[in-house]
Amino acid sequence: MTPRRLESWPDEYRKPVDVSGSDAYVAFDFGAPRVRQQDDTLTPPEFTYVEAPRGDSPRYEVDCFHDASGLPRIGAVHVLRTAAGREVRSSDLRRLRNLEDVIQSAWRAASYNPLVTIADSREEADAVFAARVSAQPEALKRQVRGLRQQARRSITPEVIEETARVYRAGRATGAPTKAVADHFGLAPSTASLYVKRARAAGMDMDGDRG
User: Fold this and answer.
1) Tell me: the pLDDT tens digits for 127-157?
2) Same domain, residue pair 43 and 114
3) What is the phi-psi region of residue 11: left when phi exceeds 0, alpha when psi lies from -120 to 50, beta otherwise?
4) Are residues 73 and 22 in the same domain?
5) Which of 51 and 67 is assigned the larger pLDDT?
6) Using an 8 Å Cβ cutoff, are 44 and 119 in contact?
7) Is residue 85 part of a domain?
8) I need a surface site. Which of 87, 116, 122, 151 has the fewest CB within 10 A?
9) Which CB contacts under 8 angstroms, 24+ apart, belong to 57-65?
10) Residue 51 lies in a domain
11) Are 36 and 120 in the same domain?
12) What pLDDT digit, counting tens, does each position of 61-98 carry?
């Protein structure tokens, strides 16, 4: 039996990922609407990272998606026997690269900046992606790592109270949610989440309580 891809995109496009000792790429629907990041980077809403070690070892597939705040997340990890390969072993589960590294490299490979003309063809897309990946890849890597770590912070009662205080003070500027984002160093969508949590907790967001 020949294993098949668990997820085949309707208009699949593949971007190679440089991994020592393996053939790796990111696959996604070329025609799907993109998720716009804080720096205007565009990324497919869902993408699949595929890594096939050379030889008879099983391949890995990592299903990625964006959460409600626009951050890249991992939905599933699969270890699959190749067509002429051996069975899956326990050691194969330990051999997969660190998942944080996987999603960083996958996200970076699948993203590009719309300041470069959005591609209408695969040939043009190759040039767009190449320009994006070569432009400060380490900065992009730090960006996605920082965003994901930031989103893991616990929204404690103290943080909720601080959110309400900053929001109230920021109302005078006409952009209180932005004031929360600037205060905590958050993406706008994450700052909105903080504000929603504060409202749900019954915090005074308008300064009407004495």
Assistant:
1) 655 555 554 445 555 555 555 555 555 677 8
2) yes
3) beta
4) yes
5) 51
6) no
7) yes
8) 87
9) 57/82, 57/85, 57/86, 57/92, 57/95, 58/82, 58/85, 58/86, 58/88, 58/92, 60/96, 61/5, 61/6, 61/7, 62/99, 62/102, 62/103, 62/106, 63/6, 63/7, 64/103, 64/106, 64/107
10) yes
11) yes
12) 999 988 877 778 899 999 998 888 899 999 998 888 88
27 in the same domain as 106: yes
Rounded distance between C-alpha atoms, residue 106 and residue 73, angstroms: 11
Q: Read off the amino acid at residue 149.
A: Q
Domain count, the chain: 2
**For residue 84, what are the contacts with CB-CB under 8 A and spacing of at least 6?**
56
pTM of the entire predicted model: 0.56
For residue 196, the enclosing domain spans: 154-200
pLDDT in tens, 90-129: 999 888 888 888 888 888 888 865 544 445 555 666 665 5
Question: Which is more confidently placed, 190 or 6?
Answer: 190
- Flag whether 4 is in a domain: no
Query: Is 22 within the bounds of a domain?
Result: yes
Question: Looking at the structure, do residues 124 and 57 belong to the same domain, yes or no?
Answer: yes
